[in-house]
Design goal:
- This protein has about 80 residues and is mainly beta.
- A 3-stranded antiparallel β-sheet has the order 2-1-3. A two-stranded antiparallel ribbon has the order 4-5.
- β4 and β5 form a beta hairpin.
Length: about 80
């Protein structure tokens, strides 16, 4: 990782709870602001790599991808 800003998703219990644009080095150096750095995973707005993550998405660790929540239509 470099100090280039990129998207990071905070994953707690398999659910994305926060997404930030930040440099990895800054995130790691500021645990008072970001908490445990092991909870943060890089995500990609252009759907490359793990893909995009938004709050409420699920992280599938087996396939190393973020999965959008399913929205059920009401009748």
């Amino acid at each position: 990782m470099s100090d280039t800003r990129t998207y990071f998703a905070k994953v707690e219990n398999g659910i994305v709870t926060d997404v930030r644009v930040v440099a990895w080095d800054f995130l790691v150096a500021n645990p008072d602001r970001y908490g445990d750095s092991t909870l943060w995973l890089e995500c990609f707005h252009d759907n490359s790599g793990r893909g995009y993550a938004g709050v409420g998405y699920t992280y599938d660790a087996v396939n190393d991808v973020f999965v959008a929540p399913t929205i059920e239509e009401s009748e």
